[in-house]
Amino acid sequence: MQSAIVNTLNQYRFFQNKIVRFFLSAGIAMLLDVTVYFITFNFIFIDDVVMIFGHSNKAHNVALLISYSCGVVINFLLTKYAVFADSNLASRKQFLRFSFIAFIGFFANYGLLRIFVEICNIAPTLARIASALSLGISSYYIHKFFTFKIKTIDDEL
């Protein structure tokens, strides 16, 4: 059963393509992620170093953790209901899979962010955008064939 979101989007030919819907939902989530990152890094963290549980952390890394967490939740909801609404896997299983992929993606983003900020001297917000964009295409296929896989009779045997 398709969601009302998918039915609404399918009225427009451009949005009938799942890849288009995926990048639209990912783009909305990324916009939220980058906005939270920008606000956190520029207005909440006053110093370049943030103390958490007695450990010093660079502000751009802590801002990434906060913004990425917000983005994952929004991205899951948009992807589940606007892109892969035809998936028949349980929502809990989808979220666990999505979170697992997001966890791996976090470290890929973290590594790229460190390279862009600390080695290439790119502004942190621009580096955050670049790291997110560089992982987008692989993310679509991972979610299509793993997270929101359509369960078939052969899968149950």
Q: What average pLDDT do the residues reach?
A: 86
Order of helices and strands: HHEEHHHHH
**Helical run tally:** 7
Query: What is the β-strand count?
Result: 2
Portion in helices: over 70%
- Give me the secondary-structure category: mainly alpha
Low-pLDDT ranges: none
Shape: elongated
Number of structural domains: 1
Strand content: 5-15%
Largest sheet report: 2 strands, antiparallel
**Major beta sheet, strand line-up:** 1-2
Radius of gyration: 17 Å
Span between termini: 23 Å
Walk me through the structure.
- By secondary structure, the chain is mainly alpha-helical.
- The protein has one domain (4-152).
- It has helices at residues 4-9, 18-44, 59-83, 91-119, 124-134, 136-147, 153-156, and strands spanning 49-52, 55-58.
- A two-stranded antiparallel sheet has the order 1-2.
- α2 (18-44) runs antiparallel to α3 and α3 (59-83) packs antiparallel against α4 (91-119).
- The protein is elongated, with a radius of gyration of 17 Å.
- The mean pLDDT is 86.
Summarize this structure as a short list of keywords or feature phrases.
2 strands; 157 residues; elongated
Secondary structure elements and their pairing?
Layout: H1 4-9, H2 18-44, E1 49-52, E2 55-58, H3 59-83, H4 91-119, H5 124-134, H6 136-147, H7 153-156
Antiparallel strand pairs: 1-2
Structure, briefly:
The protein has 157 residues and is mainly α. The chain has helices spanning 4-9, 18-44, 59-83, 91-119, 124-134, 136-147, 153-156, and strands at residues 49-52, 55-58.
